[in-house]
């Protein structure tokens, strides 16, 4: 009984030491939030009541705000690390103060000149703590992970994904392990593609672990695991409400990605199932995150009519038994239907012409990219103050 009282008093002393520090953290966090709110409020007031001598650049304002938010997030992260160190000195577990320091920042790996980017190993990945699910596909799940205080996206195959569940219904229980072979193959394929494809609009591979075909909740024992940049869902509905210059920038990024896929190091690549869900926001950019259905095989054919899209002739001939150039046309068609037709809504002759060329698939990704850059340059020139 006496020992229990001593332990109780010991815990009270620890808590009395850490609670004031947590209060300081909360107050500083609130100050940072208020600082950012005040910063944005001042700029919003400038927009609401513009003067005749000051031209407001909405895009510039947005990027200034995002930059300021990044700075505040970094201050919050540094303060969280200090609290973790203090908690260790006070012999208080990190879990006890977890609710106050749970805001993860995306993990980024910087290239060291002359060296390969250091990828996370199996040993590193075993340290990742899974926070919560972020998405679910036919063959794999995506979860938010915490690696040493940084946020990462963890991809793996679980028994709850559609392909595995459908497979287990058709074979006896003793052979269920075979149901994980194909989904794991697709995840391995995505890992290999991410290692070979380097573009600013493709998520960065941070690490991977391949050790068996087994699956489990524990990452240390899981057979195949991929770790990439953490992003948030890309919503076309929200993007179409952005100002024209922001929408142009997104369209330019997508055109650049389409051009890269057409001339990639492993030939022209096809995004077989072009969906908005395959993209995420990472650091203010839209990035492709799902590559397991990407292929460099052009459609087989015997006659030119085999090389149509939606029963339309898109100008791709059948040559040597394949539709050379159809992958690029298919990607352009998918990008237009899912994203670009919602973004490129703006009054102007050039914009109307671009939409028509996209609809008819008569424009290349390189040409689209170039002409969108010209449109953006024109908009930025109009925003610039006239020199006298």
How many strand units? Answer: 13
Strand percentage lies at 5-15%
The number of helical segments is: 10
Largest beta sheet, briefly?
6 strands, mixed
Gross morphology: flat
Overall mean pLDDT score? 79
Helix/strand order: HHEHEEEHHEEEHHEEEEEEHHH
Q: Termini, distance in Å?
A: 86 Å
Low-confidence stretches: 2-17, 28-56, 98-102, 110-115
Radius of gyration: 26 Å
Task: Identify the notable features of this structure and list them briefly.
flat, alpha+beta, 10 helices
Notes on the protein architecture:
The protein has 388 residues and is α+β, with helices and mostly antiparallel strands. The protein has helices at 2-48, 58-89, 122-125, 162-170, 181-196, 236-239, 244-262, 326-343, 349-359, 365-383; strands at residues 105-106, 129-136, 141-147, 150-156, 205-210, 224-229, 232-233, 270-271, 279-282, 285-288, 294-295, 308-309, 312-313. Helix 1 (2-48) runs antiparallel to helix 2 (58-89), helix 7 (244-262) packs antiparallel against helix 8 and helix 7 runs antiparallel to helix 10 (365-383). The longest helix is centred in the first third of the chain and has 47 residues, at 2-48. The relative contact order is 0.08.
């Amino acid at each position: 009984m006496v020992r229990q009282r001593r332990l109780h008093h010991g815990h009270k002393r620890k808590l009395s030491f850490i609670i004031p520090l947590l209060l300081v953290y909360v107050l500083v966090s609130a100050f940072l939030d208020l600082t950012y709110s005040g910063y944005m409020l001042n700029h919003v007031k400038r927009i609401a009541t513009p003067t005749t001598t000051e031209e407001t650049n909405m895009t510039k304002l947005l990027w200034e705000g995002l930059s300021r938010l990044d700075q505040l997030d970094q201050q919050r992260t540094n303060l969280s690390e200090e609290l973790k160190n203090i908690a260790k000195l006070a012999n208080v577990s990190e879990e006890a103060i977890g609710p106050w320091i749970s805001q993860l920042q995306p993990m980024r790996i910087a290239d060291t000149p002359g060296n390969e980017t250091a990828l996370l190993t199996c040993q590193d990945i075993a340290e990742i703590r899974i926070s919560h699910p972020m998405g679910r596909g036919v063959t794999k799940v995506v979860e938010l992970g915490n690696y040493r205080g940084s946020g990462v996206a963890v991809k793996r195959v679980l028994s709850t994904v559609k392909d595995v569940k459908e497979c287990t219904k058709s074979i006896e229980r003793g052979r269920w392990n075979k149901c994980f072979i194909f989904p794991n193959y697709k995840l391995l394929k995505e890992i290999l593609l991410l290692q070979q494809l380097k573009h600013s609009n493709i998520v960065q591979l941070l690490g991977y672990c391949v050790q068996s075909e087994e699956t489990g909740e524990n990452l240390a024992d899981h057979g195949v695991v991929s770790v990439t940049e953490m992003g948030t869902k890309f919503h076309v509905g929200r993007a179409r409400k952005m100002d024209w210059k922001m929408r142009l920038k997104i369209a330019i990024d997508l055109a650049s990605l389409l051009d890269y896929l057409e001339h990639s190091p492993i030939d022209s690549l096809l995004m077989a199932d072009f969906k908005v869900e395959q993209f995420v926001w990472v650091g203010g950019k839209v990035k492709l995150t799902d590559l397991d259905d990407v292929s460099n095989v052009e459609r087989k054919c015997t006659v030119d009519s085999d090389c149509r899209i939606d029963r339309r002739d898109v100008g791709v001939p059948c040559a040597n038994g394949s539709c050379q150039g159809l992958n690029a046309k298919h990607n352009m068609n998918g990008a237009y239907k899912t994203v670009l037709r919602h973004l490129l809504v703006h009054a102007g002759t050039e914009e109307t012409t671009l939409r028509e060329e996209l609809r008819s698939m008569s424009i290349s990704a390189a040409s689209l990219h170039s002409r969108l850059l010209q449109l953006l340059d024109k908009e930025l020139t109009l925003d610039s103050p006239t020199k006298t």
